[in-house]
Design goal:
The protein is an alpha/beta fold and about 400 residues long. Helices cover about 45% and strands about 10% of the residues. The strands form two sheets. A six-stranded parallel sheet has the order 1-8-5-4-2-3, sandwiched between helices. About 50% of the residues are buried. Bound molecules: 5,6-dihydroxy-NADP (NZQ) and zinc ion. Zinc ion binds near residues 197, 270 and 284.
């Protein structure tokens, strides 16, 4: 097992009717800014429920809506001005990954006085912690299980052209309320996105090379098997509580640092996927469903041991040559994504060979020239992956 440092301070409150915990979780007397997205929180009534809970004690409550999918710096800047101007001292994100990520950025940038007027600079530290010493405290009410943002210190922010990762130990939410019932209103396509994002977060930290990290491997396999068992059911039967609850908890556990501690991590699929979202507006998870099988096809030799373990322990594939078992595991994975209504080819989204070159240029511009768990994915190999995904 590799050395690791594991830190996760987020308090999770899980289950039906748990919004009623808000009054104890949000400091009394706080000046709270509730942040939300393009309107679903209003439409579904969750925003009103949140306000009702906050009103149980003396608090000043303001609202900031309009943090759309793939949160934009220009929108977040307006919230940052309000946090500073209105002396907000608690942020409450009500939404999915985009709202939670956007709120993390608001929390960090509002506090980073030395970056006033040049907040965009905070988007250029990659996976290194942004240089801030604190942030406005925040909590979340999750409405879309997918990204794990509710229990991690990451955010992905767009500056209008590029989608850029941001990390800070101060960006962990203080608490997150995970009530699976609040996710019943999601359209099927977003639930499918959540299933696939959770699946890919898990394999990015598992299908690499073995370091004899048995707990991490078996926990990853448990998440994958659970997701395969309940994935289609929770898309088809959105109000089946148990299926949805399992998705919600798997989504959180897949990217809160637990299964990634002490193991190599890939993230090749995510880095190519972020470029596809930025260039062509394809939903985050939909990019992953296309790229992950292609990564495995191109890097099957480097990932051979783990692909065979994945085939046997996740899909129960025990017969045939090594090549046959790996092929079958990859096609079972594609079929699983397709069963959720996902497309698994770039051409399904009308992309062409010319578009591949645009992705390669963006990867180069962002320094993504040595991707994967071993850093051996050059631009040339990314091009091969994209061709295999065509
Ligand atoms: O904007 P509103 O109107 O709220 O609608 C949203 C949005 O259109 C809607 N929605 C959310 N909850 C709903 C609902 N509709 C009905 N009922 C509900 N209960 O769903 C749409 C998608 O929401 P979004 O937050 O964009 O989706 P998701 O949670 O998949 O987040 C995607 C973003 O997270 C980033 C992605 O890059 C992308 O920007 N990621 C963040 C990560 C992290 N912080 O660790 C890791 C991930 O790999 C990912 O990169
Ligand atoms: Zn993801």
């Amino acid at each position: 097992m590799l050395n690791f440092s594991f830190y996760n301070p987020t308090h999770i409150v899980f289950g039906k009717d748990q919004l009623e915990q808000l009054d104890t979780l949000v400091p009394k007397g706080a000046k709270v800014l509730i942040t939300y997205g393009g309107g679903s929180a209003k439409r579904t009534g969750v925003l009103d429920k949140v306000k009702k809970e906050l009103a149980k004690s003396q608090r000043e409550v303001a609202e900031f809506g309009g943090i759309g999918a793939n949160p934009e710096l220009s929108v977040l800047m307006k919230a940052i001005e309000r946090v500073r101007g209105e002396k907000i001292d608690f942020l409450l994100a009500v939404g999915g990954g985009s709202v939670m990520d956007g709120t993390k950025f608001i929390a960090l940038a509002s506090f980073a006085k030395e970056f006033t007027g040049k907040e965009e600079a905070l988007l250029h530290f990659g996976f290194d912690p942004v240089p801030v010493e604190s942030a406005v405290p925040m909590g979340t009410v999750l409405t879309l299980p997918a990204t794990g943002s509710e229990m991690n210190g990451f955010a992905v922010i767009s500056n209008g052209k590029d989608k850029l990762p941001v990390f800070s130990p101060y960006a962990f939410p203080q608490f997150s309320i995970l009530d699976p019932v609040l996710t019943y209103t999601l359209p099927a396509t977003q639930v499918a996105n959540g299933v696939v994002d959770t699946f890919i977060h898990t394999v990015e930290q598992y299908v690499t090379y073995s370091v004899d990290a048995r707990f991490q491997d078996r926990t990853a396999e448990g998440i994958l098997q659970t997701i395969i068992e309940i994935g289609k059911k929770t898309v088809d039967e959105p109000e089946d509580y148990d299926a949805r609850a399992n998705l919600v908890w798997c989504a959180t556990m897949a990217l809160n640092g637990l299964i990634g501690a002490g193991v190599p991590q890939d993230w090749n699929t995510h880095m190519i996927g972020h470029e596809l979202t930025a260039l062509f507006g394809i939903d985050h998870a939909k990019t992953l469903a296309i790229i992950q099988p292609a990564v495995w096809k191109v890097r099957r030799e480097q990932k051979k041991g783990k692909l065979l373990q994945y085939a046997e322990r996740v899909w129960d594939i025990r017969e045939g040559s090594e090549d046959e078992r790996i092929n079958l595991a990859i096609s079972r994975t594609e079929e699983f994504f397709q069963s959720l209504g996902m497309k698994t080819k770039l051409s399904d989204h009308n992309l062409t060979q010319d578009d591949i070159e645009k992705v390669i240029s963006s990867l180069e511009k962002h320094g993504m020239t040595a991707l994967s768990e071993t850093g051996d994915v050059t631009l040339e190999i990314s091009r091969e992956i994209l061709k295999a995904a065509m």
